[in-house]
Write a structure and sequence with these properties.
The protein has about 140 residues and is α/β, with parallel strands linked by helices. The chain is built from 3 helices and 7 strands; from the N terminus they run αββββαβαββ. Helix 3 links the parallel strand 5 and strand 6.
Length: about 140
């Protein structure tokens, strides 16, 4: 009967996770760096205002940058083409909300021109988008008391 010779190397019972941690941290860094670009949208410095929380419905977004460039969704358009871009929403113009994002440096007169053009097309549900202002909890006037 032949005896089996036992190897001096035993079975390794633990797992080396160093490479797994390296890959995970690398993916985390990649996702952290790319997340702001995935969000999309036109870069606009929105004004801050105290607003009530509302339910946001799907609708077209019109953005105006500080140099008065008009964007429909994320596509740069001429102001005169705004009517044409709103045509697909014509059937639902009483219900679909139109969101207007304007840089805080844009003159009031230009914003009013864009608002008037949207309302002239019959869109009644026009919403101005703002950044939610940070409330000071020590000030009772901001808490609504």
């Amino acid at each position: 009967m032949a005896h089996r010779r036992r190897s001096s190397y035993g079975a390794m019972a633990n797992i080396n996770i160093t490479s797994l941690v390296d890959v995970t941290l690398t993916l985390l860094i990649i996702f952290m760096l790319t997340a702001p670009y995935i969000q999309g949208g036109v870069e606009v410095n929105l004004p801050e205002a105290d607003t009530r929380n509302t339910v946001v419905k799907e609708g077209p977004v019109i953005s105006i940058t500080n140099n008065r460039k008009v964007f429909f969704q994320e596509q740069a358009i001429e102001f005169a083409d705004l009517k044409m871009m709103l045509l697909p929403y014509e059937e639902q113009k009483d219900e679909v909300p139109v969101y207007l994002r304007c840089d805080e440096e844009v003159p009031y007169g230009f914003v009013l021109k864009v608002m008037a053009a949207i309302e002239y097309e019959g869109f009644l549900n026009l919403s101005l988008v703002t950044d939610q202002a940070a409330q000071d909890v020590s000030n009772p006037e901001q808490r609504g008391q």
